[in-house]
Specification:
Length: 284
Amino acid sequence: MRSNHVFAVLLFLSAAVSAQTLSVMSYNIRLDLASDGVNAWPNRKEMLTALIRYHAPDIVGLQEAQRHQLDAIAALLPEYAWVGVGRDDGKDAGEFMAILYRKEAVELMENATFWCSPQPWKPGRGWDASYNRVVTWGRFRSRNSGEVFYFYNTHLDNSGVTARRESAKLLMDSVNARTGILPVIITGDFNSGPADDPYGTIIAVTNRRVMKDAYTGAELPPYGPRGTFNGFSISEYAKEPIDYIFVSSGITVRSHAVLTDSYHGRVPSDHFPLLSIVRLPVTQ
């Protein structure tokens, strides 16, 4: 009888851990440019959505998504919904830093977007940035465990060093001010390496919320290359990452991967997607 009781307890604990598990992806999908030729969006949208469908992440931070690309993703992946706004007008114009989420896995409770500038409440370009940049965040509830968490997604500027530094500070100011004790996940293309200011700003121990890189914090050895930008090449890609998944210290990262899925020598985007399996802490 005692062995049966122990077995039942183990089953219960296993189910509880499974319920708290969340599959998280970060993916710069590359905007639709006709000049990309064979790699333009119409020639790769099925590849990209097939990759997402197969790996079935519960929640995804998408970067560089234009409205018509999001509409195509929604049509091809009806099990997902998304939130976000265009960075140029706060509606449909320009790139979105959209949050894509599997409707059966998580429930959206609240969301908003702010601009990476000294006036974050309205569309605009900040500091030495080349483009408008935004952060989209959402408060979500896991349908399995009932746990509530925050999810932030961004794409920092490609050329403005000051803009990247100040944008990372602005992002963490929001995290520190808004999230309380709830778990936090940050995804994005930071256009900077682990030795640069934005990365250091995110993981700084002086933050009210201590964040960690899912790559370095995973329980299992990371899978795939460290570099995330591939320039549409499966064989020649950057050695250092510019895309990341960060999680707050209470979140356990079971595994982390940079996915190099290819189709007849072609990749779905000029960035590899990142996929982390995480366990949310119990906060209720």
